[in-house]
Amino acid sequence: MKVDTAGVRQRPRVEGGREEEILDATVAVVAELGYDRLTMDAVATAAKASKATLYRRWTTKAELVVDAISRAKGCPMPEDVDTGSLRGDLISMSCGDGGFTDEMPMSVIAGLITALHRDADLQKAFRERFLAPRQEVTGKVFERAVERGEIAPGVDIELLSTTLPAVIVHHAYVLGVPPTDELILRVIDNVILPAARGSQAS
After folding, report:
1. Domain span at residue 50?
2. Where is the HTH tetR-type domain (predicted)?
3. I want to staple 47 with a disulfide (CB 3.0 to 4.6 A). Which of 22, 33, 136, 139 is the partner?
4. Which residue, 59, 7, 53, 48, is CA-closest to 24?
5. Does 143 or 14 have the greater pLDDT score?
6. pTM of the model
């Protein structure tokens, strides 16, 4: 999705490595307090920065939070891995740093869930800047699986590609079950791969 940036005000950068420190502090505060309770004061204190510094770069907490979760080290983008199999790719993306078993990204999502339902600006920015790049990486994984013949004709790839995160989010935030490698493997082996082969129609 191409975002029209015409007329968008260019925000001043924060000098040196301070911007990364502020972004990391923001991620930590979101994970601890959630979006609703997060304030610029709390971030400034955590980052040991002045509130004026924050406001020169980000005019609202929504801008700051979305920037933070999109770029900070605490929530890294999954790499576009190619292990040679759909199963291997999904395991590599979902387990470890930045995956579903990584405490920081999951804590950040938990801190945003309630606000995402009622804050349209936050929802739009989160979808475009956080979810979209990750969905693009996942899409490439499933495209390669199609090319390798691992996915049967007629399988709903768009639905299939969202199944793993949907199950993980349901377990984590509805059932209260923390994501584990074992759970991820169960979903991959018992749901995604059989569905990819078209086994549900047999």
Report:
1. 18-71
2. 16-76
3. 22
4. 48
5. 143
6. 0.77
